[in-house]
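Subject — a protein and its fold
Fields — amino acid sequence, structure tokens
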Amino acid sequence: MKIGVIMGGISSEREVSLNTGKEILNNLDKNKYEVIPIVIDKKEDIIEKTKDIDFAFIALHGKFGEDGIVQAVLETLNIPYSGCNPLASGICMDKSITKSILKTAGVSTAPWVIIRNMNELDLKKVEEMGYPVVVKPNSGGSSVATSIVEEEKYLKEAIAEAFKWDHEVMIEKYIKGQEITCCILDGELLPVISIKPKSHFFDYTSKYADGGAEETIIELPSPLKEKVEEAVLKCWKHLKCSVYARVDMIIGEDDIYVLEINTLPGMTRNSLFPKSANAFGLSFSELLDRIVELSMKERNQ
């Protein structure tokens, strides 16, 4: 089988994608697959460069990667691909839609508002949520242009920065607590990872620099463990995820709060999903094998 590893892309997360792609290239079983790198520099490349492959392993992050568009193009070309389908990808990329669905499903998520321009900013609503708040692009990833705002006087500056990366900006209540990430493979929760960033929060540097955060496999006590698992599996079901995904959440003082769902989790050597899979007993190569196998089954190939 000829596998094309699709990486690069046109989003703010291009560098992360290239790193993810290289790691996947290095760890796919060469005895099983013919593996070729496919670097996307412009949208048309997804059509022009995938003609001769049997399977697309998507290592893209951000827009035109995680938002379902590439998945829809590959379906049109009848090329099976890794991960979630276009619908789930699109839903999970939009943080506000994700949170709305989760709220309906009874999953706790922090209060938030969405604005499409500065004129929509309602300072009273933000004040009602209470500072600090988190300001971020609604459809961004890797914590690009994400800020924790402690006071109203810094709010507009943070919003202006987030608008450089997206046409919608989310202002969300900051929840103090322990950050964890929950990796799901084929609907099964893998070992939970606790994240303690060296900086103020789990920002871009913390995520991708060596030693940027302390990431530890943890065993949650009951009944917290069951509560987290229930929330994670509700996310998987109600957001229509398949193959693999990662749910980020905060264990707050009064409840657990889902932050977001990643349908194409990072696969660099510092990434969380390979660490969780390793604790589950799957090597990186075995994890990639499993993703290919599950994806082919999902695409009915």
